[in-house]
Known about the structure:
- The structure is a single chain.
- The chain is α+β, with helices and mostly antiparallel strands.
- The protein folds into three domains: 33-126, no CATH class; 131-261, no CATH class; 275-372, no CATH class.
- It is built from six helices and 21 strands.
- The chain has helices at 2-25, 143-147, 181-185, 223-233, 275-283, 347-362; strands at residues 40-44, 49-53, 55-57, 60-65, 75-77, 84-87, 90-92, 106-113, 116-126, 131-137, 152-160, 166-178, 190-200, 206-213, 242-249, 252-261, 291-294, 297-300, 314-318, 327-329, 336-341.
- The strands form four sheets. The protein has a seven-stranded mixed barrel with strand order 10-11-12-13-14-16-15. The chain has a six-stranded mixed sheet with strand order 3-4-9-8-6-7, with no helix packed on it. The protein has a five-stranded antiparallel sheet with strand order 17-18-20-21-19, with helices on one face.
- A hairpin with a 6-residue loop joins strand 20 (327-329) and strand 21.
Amino acid sequence: MKDMLKKYGVLLFVSIAALCITLVAGIKGSKDDALYNKVSFGVKNNMNNDGVKIWKNNSIAYIFLPAYAERDSVTFSDNEYNIKLKLGSNTYESGDKIKNLELDKEYDAELVKNNKKENFKLSFYKANDTATIYIDTESQSLYKVNEDKDNKEAGSMKIIDRDGKINYDSDIEYISGRGNYSWMWGDKKSYNIKLNEGTDLLNLGASDKWCLNANCFDKSSLKNKMIYDFAKEMRMPFTPDTAYVDVYFNGEYAGIYLLSEKLNVEKNRVNIHDLQADNDLLNGYGYHDVMIEYNNKRGYKAENEPSKMDGGYLMELLPYDREYTSGFFTRNNNVLISIDSPKYITLNELEYISKFVSVLLVYSPSTCPQDKS
């Protein structure tokens, strides 16, 4: 327990520092056709060369460097826009290294292209002891994804661990929105990531589905991580593994996120019997299109039912007005239970699990009749 408290004392310190950066990064500066939006700073070490864009709000600007960045290897890039940078008393062209770079120092900066100039204060900050994720979408923007939670966009992703080693560098099938209340009302969005194949990210176990949790209503960014770690210590089954990461979307710093496993029915996640696989084996995929709604229930009509349907089921409690693929409202207190797996639940399976859950919600262990135990 002392080790856990010491660990979270350190995390609290790190989280407060990250909060200061995240709050600043969460405010959206104007972009239009500004020069600052066309340049970037190359972050180099022995294995990587990644570009980080300027974040700017009015006359104050920031560069948020990843943990693996080496100060003496940060270079200016005009991305072929023929822009020069004046930083303090030095002038830089594309490819030049920044001389004697100091962190947490406010520089007088000026970007120049022909007769156009932009003057602002520029400070460099560097993350501490966290992995870094770069996600680039095909459109080089998150506008489409942020417009609707169900929108998906392909792209690429690179993960650099805290030691500067490449953990992942490949295309992703898509990035999409995540969350309910937090998606609607949070300024900082959470996302789902779908890889092209199962991959072990940051030693969290192999899977093709991952979550980036913004912790948008937790300014410390500690609560989810702490609860998951305590659950691991208590050996609670199916507790997701998590890791803090600094995230850059299309080169622009987005803040600290919590990378976690997505709860799915699979060997390295929720290791229970896969009823959806049984259903598809017996019926193919055609029955996915035959959705039936009746008595506050939503399921799918299949010609063949598995001989064993007492597990496994992965379910989620949702607000009553949420969209869902399959599930039911309980008889007694009108709770919406969404069925995540089997996603296309058959009608017989739906009857079985809805009755089972209704019994759980009505009876406590001490009052449950023997015939329902």
